[in-house]
Amino acid sequence: MYGGGVIMYGYNGKILRINLKEKTIKVEALDLELAKKFIGGRGLGTKIFMDEVDPMVDPLSPENKLIIVTGPLTGTPVPTGGRYMVVTKSPLSNTIACSNSGGHWGAEFKATGYDIIILEGKADSPVYLTIIDDKVEIKDASSLWGKLVTETTDIIKSEMPDKAKVMTIGPAGERLSKMASIMNEYDRAAGRSGVGAVMGSKNLKAIAVKGSSKPQIADPEKLKEVSSVWMKAIKENGVTGAGLPTYGTAVLVNILNESGVHPTNNFQKSYFENADDISGETMTKDYLVRKNPCFRCPIACGRYVKIEEMGIEVGGPEYETLWSFGSDCGIADMNAINKANYLCNEYGMDTISVGATIAAGMELYQKGYIKEEELEGSPLEFGNVQGMLDWTLKIGKVEGLGAKMAEGSYRFCDSYGAAHLSMTVKKLEIPAYDPRGIMGQGLSYATSNRGGCHVRGYMISPEILGLPQKLDRFSLEGKATWTKIFQDFTATIDSLGLCLFTSFAMGASDYADLCNAVCGTEHTAESILEAGDRIYNIERQFNLQAGIDQSQDTLPKRLLEEPITEGPSKGNVHRLSELLPDYYKERGWDENGNPTQEKLKALGL
Amino acid sequence: MKITVKLFATFRDGREKIRIFELEQGKTPEDVIAILGIEKSEIAIFLVNGRDGQFDKPLIEGDLIALFPPVGGG
Questions:
Q1: Same domain flag for A174 and A68
Q2: Could you tell me the pLDDT band of residue A7, with boundaries at 50, 70 and 90?
Q3: Cβ atoms of residues A47 and A34 within 8 Å
Q4: Which domain CATH number covers A400?
Q5: Which secondary-structure segment (H or E) carries A544?
């Protein structure tokens, strides 16, 4: 395809710029040099966002932009090449946000012939977009506003050609919940950082896509060869070829719990006695209906589960969801967690943040901050299944105390003068791994550019799973170096448009081979990691310019000062202050966590 | 001595989830997995009392062994 007259492989070469206030639709050429430097997806989206938006922008104002961006491998015939990302400024954390989703929407959008949509302004009334190849329309969504995700998706699909794909917000995004996600194809989510609220703030309900083109491949023969190496490695790897396909991500419940790093009752404990009841083993035996694979994915970790009393089969919970609504709320009822997950998908909410916020609410109630009269009859006690479901629904509807919760755990706890009970980093809820027993993962949380997140540097892989090699999870040795490498590597994988799970089986040189075959680039393992480093640094620069400085590279006080009370990781706190100076040095940042001029110059920034 | 073994994922196929063994002093995890019919090469995560274990280290009364095949990420 053509961008500025240059043949672009992998990329379509076209950006769609839509101003929702003015109702203007423009097509712009993608700058190939910029694309190569920042790859695509997370990297390129962030670079474009930084060039166009003031870092101090109010995230829910019309001046914030929402960038939907694919990678050069999205929609190409490579394993897991279906991902897209949403880049914006997060209303939850005020950091740069890049929320990544699988499913089938990303590949279908890429087939329309565009790579990126830049959404600007705020529509005067609710609208949705349809993109059928190069035909782009802004349509009235007033009859869709207020509807749940399944109904919205079905209505829009009925008006589109067969096999169109729909991404949409639910009522939570419309009502600007800071935990709102953007759903696609019913049960896949760009979940984190409140990106659904930004979409809602623009009066944009949905984007439906149907395409018929394919990006050009630089070396189709080479791609066949490299793809078959990938397929073989993914199939033969124990994690991607057996563990994830058989049990999904839920298989982690027992692993983390047996290691004593499975946070329970809002991180008051780190071992949950009844964890096996909500494990991958139990899900597979009692609830699994079938697998729910993403576009061109040989791993197929996604699940469909049954909720018998509702007579439905729906997208099943991931590990983090089983944890947030399960162990973190003291609940061992998998059927109830399946329902909470379903409610989140229908209302368009991030399951990690919602479950973790309810858990924080349970501790606020336990400690007497929340009074009985505030509860309007819905219990808020650890272990109370009906209460957990009631509050999930109330957060989805943004009503009563649920409206306060919909602001996220930090603002909710802070409103009671108890911010210390919010288990967040940069106001984003920490997921299902207690860093007090996993030192590298804690460093990764504290330095993640979007806040408390596990997929910005999944140190669980070496520290718990032993991939690519086993590290002592309590030791600090080498953790700054490993964390930086994992963070950089992840930034590149995200930017390419691939699933992070491929990295259980593949190394940096494999990604270089795949990218080179598709895009005609000359990447090496080193340049793949360097691109990730570059992306990590621009995200950091954005955050610094947005006022998110070194003081926020931290963990909740509980995790730094209160030792784990029982189980295999008993007695440990996270030793962040011993790791941070090494980490800054490893990154080439000064002692205040600012990228040095030398570092930025070396990265071509 | 009494040793508890917890099995996970596919190690549960055809086996109990939890087994309690009465073993002589000096027995190691290697002896335990031999009784269970599990090869060392099949094991990806091997914990004794929740910490990374050593196959040849003698067990002591009350030890808890957890065994996982290669499984997953989240």
A1: yes
A2: confident
A3: yes
A4: 1.10.569.10
A5: helix A525-545
DSSP A52: H
Q: Is the pLDDT of residue A170 over 90?
A: yes
Q: Which two tokens stand for residue A570?
A: 């008993």
Burial class (CB in 10 A: 0-12, 13-18, 19+), A347: buried
Residues A123 and A55 in one domain: yes
Same domain membership, residue A574 and residue A553: yes
d(CA A7, CA A9): 7
**A127-132 vs A428-429, strand pairing mode:** unpaired
Strands (E), A79-164: 84-89, 96-101, 116-120, 127-132, 135-140
Mutate to test the interface with A, among B15, B40, B46, B71 (most CBs of A within 10 A): B71
pLDDT, tens digit (0-9, with 9 covering 90-100), for A452-487? 999 999 999 999 999 999 999 999 999 999 999 999
Q: Is the pLDDT of residue A2 over 60?
A: no
Interface test with B, best of A255, A291, A319 (most B CBs within 10 A): A255
Say yes or no for a CB contact (<8 Å) between A243 and B17: no
pLDDT digits (tens, 9 = 90+) for A67-116: 999 999 999 999 999 999 999 999 999 999 999 999 999 999 999 999 99
Q: What separation, in Å, do the N-terminal and C-terminal C-alpha atoms of chain A show?
A: 27
Given this model, what pLDDT does residue A190 score? 98
Please name the member of A244, A279, A470 whose beta carbon is closest to the beta carbon of B52: A470
Mean pLDDT, chain A, as a whole number?
A: 97
In the 8-state DSSP scheme, what is residue B5?
A: E
Specify the number of domains making up chain B. 1
A234 occurs within a structural domain: no
Q: Is B74 on the interface with A (CB under 8 A)?
A: yes
Mutation to test the B interface, candidates A235, A258, A284, most B Cβ within 10 Å:
A258
- Residues A409 and A460 both lie in one domain: no
Domain end point (choices A397, A422, A447)? A422
Predicted confidence band of residue B74 (pLDDT cuts 50, 70, 90): low
Owning domain of residue A562: 435-602
Residue A216 counted as domain residue: no
Which strand (E) or helix (H) includes residue A238? helix A238-238
Q: Is residue B60 part of a domain?
A: yes
Q: How far apart are CA A398 and CA A177, in angstroms?
A: 7
Which CATH number is A140's domain given?
3.60.9.10
The answer to whether B46 contacts chain A (CB < 8 Å) is: no
Binning pLDDT at 50, 70 and 90, where does residue A3 land? very low
Measure A568 CA to nearest chain B CA, in Å. 5
> Where a domain ends, among A159, A188, A210?
A210
A394 with A502, same domain: the answer is no
Domains identified in chain A, total number: 3
- Sign of the torsion formed by the C-alpha atoms of A4, A48, A491 and A303: negative
Contact between A500 and A458 under an 8 Å Cβ cutoff? The reply is yes
Q: What is the CATH number of the domain that holds B41?
A: 3.10.20.30
DSSP state letter for A490: H
Indicate the length of chain B as a whole number. Answer: 74
With respect to residue B74, please indicate whether it lies within any of the assigned structural domains. Answer: no
| Torsion A585-A587-A593-A597 (CA) sign | positive
Chain A residues in contact with B71 by the CB 8 A cut-off are 238-239, 242-244, 247, 251-252, 255, 280, 465
| Same domain as A94, residue A117 | yes
Strand order in the sheet with A288-291: A288-291, A303-307, A312-315
> Would residue A427 count as lying in a domain?
no
Domain that holds residue B40: 2-68
Answer yes or no: do A449 and A414 share one domain.
Answer: no
pLDDT given at position A251: 95
